[in-house]
Amino acid sequence: MFTQILTRISNWLTGSWLNLAVASHDWVVPALQTVHILSVAVVLAGVLLINLRIIGWAERSQPVPAVIDRFLWPVTIAVLVLLATGLLQIAGEPNRAIFRTIFWLKMGLLIVALGLTWSQRPVFAQRGDEVVTAKPASKLVALVTLTLWLAVIVAGRWIAYADPWAGAPS
Ligand code: HEM
Hints:
Blueprint: H1 2-13, H2 17-23, H3 28-55, H4 64-92, H5 101-127, H6 136-158
The structure holds protoporphyrin IX containing FE.
Protoporphyrin IX containing FE binds near residues 83, 89 and 153.
């Protein structure tokens, strides 16, 4: 059922103006990949600083809510750029990523990681600017969040090496 829906999307994309715009120039895919990987760097830098601050290993002179406020928007904007450049890569080669389990695992991990990252904001905002040391439970959540972001990156890199699942169009 899922394969059928994806096959329809893939067929609809194949030969579309967007597919041709991406696939008919040699420089477009490398350019999209470059922006994708630079945006990964922004996400990683932001989530490292937020979560290492919560754990207490970075930016210790800054209150936790201030660090979250500083880096949450750059992270979110970079994720939107990742969404755009990721979707354009799919449009350029519709039969590739969407028929690989690792791609959908990456999307699932991304939703959880982004949700956890945003959930840290109200948790710490409630406690005000005097928050210098996070509770152990918050530190654990920060460690899990960071691990999930790293897993998203590994899954992204893995797409190129995974086989499509059985029944996928070739
Ligand atoms: C928001 C939705 C996203 C979509 C739709 C998307 C889609 C894609 C696609 C289609 C590829 C190319 C895979 C291939 O054909 O080999 C890719 C690669 C990759 N993605 Fe994403 N992505 C998204 C977000 C992210 C995020 C948030 C991260 C990490 C923070 C990420 C990290 C990567 C990495 C590391 C690669 C491999 C790049 C390379 O090998 O040059 N992606 N992504």
